Amino acid sequence: MKLRFFILVSTLICTSCVPPSKIIEMQGISTILGFDLLDDETYKGTISLLQFDRSQGKTSTTISAEGSTSKEIRQRLEQQTSHDISSGQLRTILFDKQIAEEGLFSFLDTMLRDTRINPFIFLAITDKSEETINSKEYEEFPEMGSYMYQLLDKHEKKEMLINSNLHDFISALYESGIDPTLPIIKNIKGEAPFIEGVALFKDDKMVDSISLIKTFYIKLFTNNNAFLGDLTLTIPSDKLEKTGVLISENAENEKYKITLHPINYQGEIEVVNNEIVNLNASISVSIIEIQPSASIIDKESTRKLERLIGEELNNEFEKILEELKILETDPIGIGRKIKSLRKYTHLSNEELSEKYSALKIMPNITVEIKRPGAVN
Amino acid sequence: MKSKNVFLDYQEIRTILNDSPDLMCRKMELGRQTIQIVFMKNLINQEVLNEYVIKYMQTIPEKHLNYTYLVNNIPIEEIKTENEKNEFISSLLKGFSYIYFLNEKKGFMVNCNNTLERSIEKAETESLVYGPKISFTESLSSNIKIIRQNLNDYNLCTDSLTIGERVKKEVRIVYIKDIANDETLNNLKERLEKIKPDNINDSSVLAQCLEDDHYTFFPQLLLTELPDRFIYSILNGRIGVFMDGSPVAIIGPANFFSFFESTEDIYLRWSLSTFIRFTRIFAMIVSLFLTAFYVATMTYHFELIPSKLLIIIGQSRSQVPFPPLLEALLLELLIELLREAGARLPSKVGQTMGIVGGIVVGQATVEAGLTSNILIIIVAFSALGAFLAPIYEMGTAIRIARFPCIILAGLWGLNGIMISVCILMVHLLKLTSLNKPYLAPLYPFRKEDFKYFLFRLPHHFYTKRPVVNRPKDTIRIRER
Lengths: 376, 480
Description:
The complex is a heterodimer. Chain A has helices spanning about 1-15, 70-80, 95-100, 105-115, 130-135, 145-160, 165-175, 215-220, 235-245, 300-325, 335-340, 350-360; strands at about 25-35, 45-50, 60-65, 85, 90-95, 120-125, 180-185, 195-200, 205-210, 230-235, 255-270, 275-290, 360-370. Chain A is of the alpha/beta class. In chain A, strands 1, 2, 3, 4, 5, 6, 7, 8 and 9 form a nine-stranded mixed sheet that branches. Chain A has a four-stranded mixed sheet with strand order 10-11-12-13. Chain B is of the alpha+beta class. Chain B has three domains: about 10-110, no CATH class; about 140-255, no CATH class; about 270-435, no CATH class. Chain B contains 16 helices and twelve strands. Chain B has helices at about 10-15, 45-60, 65-75, 85-95, 140-150, 180-195, 205-210, 225-235, 265, 270-300, 305-315, 325-345, 345-365, 375-385, 390-430, 450-455, and strands at about 25-30, 35-40, 80, 95-100, 105-110, 155-165, 170-175, 220-225, 240-245, 250, 430-435, 435. Chain B has a five-stranded antiparallel sheet with strand order 1-2-4-5-3. Chain B is elongated and about 100 Å long. Chains A and B meet through strand 1 and helix 6 of A and helix 10, helix 11 and helix 15 of B.
């Protein structure tokens, strides 16, 4: 027994069966990585490395290199530092818009194959990633990588973002009938980078962007547990009066602004027939703010307001759907739903997208006001 | 059985004891009788000899001055005759006086010994906040007295044995007859009989001789100087062993978790004691693996460190010239040096030692850039963790077991830690204490014993004695 144990240990030690050591201070620990398109073939990669020297005031250094593949860039980056560049702490990868418009797949594929890169790494689109990474504005965080991670993580957990990590992106890409989305980071001089909107993709190519607020409608149908975020609607007062919700006391051309806080929601894509798809969703909300102040007390007018809000939402959603259809992008996953039905399983991706553009999509959002006048 | 008594006269005794200057002989001529009283000068209580032996013999009528009358009537509690020369001499050396009738060529021994002993004091190594503070002493008879006083049960047995070829020491096996498991008891007795050294210094040496596995780091028998712990264990079906001349009692069978329990756990409220017990076990795990984990993450797995912490750790490591493994071993060694120095020094110097070691050396090594301050915290934390084990022996075991873990972590990172966990678990599973599994109640799984060894519940839950000790009488509180 002891002999056997001894042999086991010595086979491990004598054959150098030891993992390569990565002593922490020898590592150039990258926290954020950005790619920019220079011209047709060359990309510029920028990387932010943690910097452990206490005598220098800063906590990170940024280096850039050019190359035609991400691995070539990495190789050239290695030439610029005495540290061993490692991606174990990499949390965010930025792409500039040109690369996104050309297609991200070739980059992401190699990332996904790299076991040292976490598949839950965040992806984002920005105007010029080098500038964003080089920006010195990162609130109280020690360096840009942590700031960007916190920014995206908070938004994903708290409000607006549809999932935007590498894993989600690739899975949406490979799945037929749904297109991925990614957040767009805006970098303005003197300000910390912020999320500007959400990029829409057709396959792996960015086609357009929508505002964060509008992702509300997408989340309704893609994610059952998302935090929807508050919704502010503008309704003219005469419309309110006409439907008899309340009687405006002030001037005629006034507009009421209502902020709703969704409590609960359920979205469902209903394929009615070959041509028509219904997007049914029911949301229960509480009204957290009305400007100017007005009180809705009786049940009757609450029901009327519910109908009114539902209409407003449907109108807006219809516009968004039209846009999406024109762009031939399907972030909601209507194609996926269609394909999941038995009679459409044979459809190829092309047929599916043809079918998508020909579809008549009917939004059907119903709202239920659970708590009129709730204060946070 | 009829055996021949040994009767030696003064000259014979003198030759056997190599003309010891301590050997005294008082010759008395009372009427026709000549009586020799032989004793060792320093070992007897002179008062007893004067008052109850010499004076008594002077006052009784001459016709009674013979062997038979005196054996029956001398006013001393313990008298005896011996069958063997060796026993005879050793009794004399224990403080018996030998009364020899020259005419009859017969004699007997009376006990008038006067042993030196410490008064009963507060426990030193196991100190308590609540509960009785009394501790055992070096005297076997006072230890038995303490136990008898506190455990008034006629079933309390104190079987006597003598151990040691040259220096004979009395050993007492203490148990409660209708609770203690016979198999364990016989096992213990067998082992005790097998031990044949010429001398056993202390009961801790005896415990080492009694252990199942002599090579392991881990103690398999509890050593305690607290009577209340002893009594508590015995009432739960364990068996205790006392040795003359040692203030430490041995308790067995013990399991791994019993080294983390203190009698204070019973005295405190259940919520606090449960919390403290978990803390101790947590501290043990921390003490074993925290430094190893540091070494592993610093050398191989920086990915695991949260990014905010990473910068702090990276900054503190950036000036250190050694690889993490060497750094950790150096610092652990430093702590061990300090600890050992502190333990052997008088308490006043020991304090200064602690300050010099802890603050000055610690601070200086960090400022010189020899170690990172994060590691100082970690090493201090794990050193502290080892002290949390209420039984000192377990603390030392953890101290030593830490080093293989650190080295394995340095070789193979987290895999190394995993390997050391596996080896440790297999080892603990294989260990036994008096043939009872060491890792009980985890393995074999005894759910009902968890309340004894892992946590604590309010006292009315303790209706049954722990199963792992296999008591004969399992019920503690009989329901009416």
